[in-house]
């Protein structure tokens, strides 16, 4: 089959690889219909997650049709249209039983790397390096999904593919960011980053009762979407001092809840950003913390900071003093989509949420390298490129 593979830092290409097969009775095989790029993929492609090997298949946000099932699978069958949660869960360990699915003990087949880095093994993630299990990703014609009945969800009638594909990752990540923020009716929420996850966090914050949501980014088209499609007030950090603007917009108090949807490659300006950038490029630390530091500094006393941006390791100049002295609550985690998918589909079916506007560039799988370059460099207002293996490339 054809697959989009990592071939080296910032190098991608289509390769012919063997079709996947059922390896475990609880596996399913899915014929991929749509597979989206994701901002966290850029950390892999750029070499910031040093656990890829040439030939590894990328991609983790997707939907498709089941073409085969293991002998223990009874709730799903061939022909089912499903969306698959990108972070794998077994459904039976201590963490899964309390619905902390992204903390699963059993899905990372190569636990030693994250045990060394973080103290405990992390869950497996499809298409996300050998640190997270070494599973082949979804930018391919077919994909094997372990623990299929836990991680794949039938797409309800009335939910289109362009809506459902983002329920794999971007929608539950944004929704979980708002959920972890513990939003109360009347709260003012600030969201850093207006990519797919940030836009979904904005929409989710309103669903959970926020009175106002303020979105921070620098790209005019993304800020326009945050305002027009998600009803957020916006701050362009290239033009405005974010901290001063947030204080002014909240009567000097600061937002009640702050959600970081940016992560380890945060862009910014000023000495602090360039300090981060140089240290990251020289491998003296892993993460650029511009957005997270801003969120912690701006959050009102006694407020909550929710961190959904992906961070890989260690960060200098972390403002622990602000967390302690302002009595902040900080909550984070990889998305536990299995907990949220049914209610997200209900929101979509009832018209309260429509993530389809995230899909700006439908493309053939053969255009994968082009799609990622466009996505990485924010060309042509690319919010999400979505690859369709059956689409024929034009041009």
What would your notes on this structure say?
Its cofactor is Zn(2+). Residues 8-368 form the Enoyl reductase (ER) domain. The chain contains 14 helices and 16 strands. It has helices at 39-45, 94-97, 112-118, 148-151, 161-164, 170-180, 196-207, 220-228, 242-249, 270-281, 290-298, 320-325, 337-349, 368-376; strands at 2-8, 11-16, 28-36, 56-57, 61-69, 81-84, 142-145, 152-154, 188-192, 212-217, 233-236, 257-260, 304-307, 329-332, 361-364, 385-388. The strands form 3 sheets. Strands 3, 5, 6, 7, 8, 15 and 16 form a 7-stranded mixed beta sheet that branches. The chain has a 6-stranded parallel beta sheet with strand order 11-10-9-12-13-14, with helices on both faces. Strands 2-1-4 form a 3-stranded antiparallel beta sheet, with no helix packed on it. Helix 8 (220-228) links the parallel strand 10 and strand 11 (233-236). Helix 6 crosses helix 7 and helix 6 crosses helix 13 (337-349). It is globular, with a radius of gyration of 20 Å. The mean pLDDT is 94.
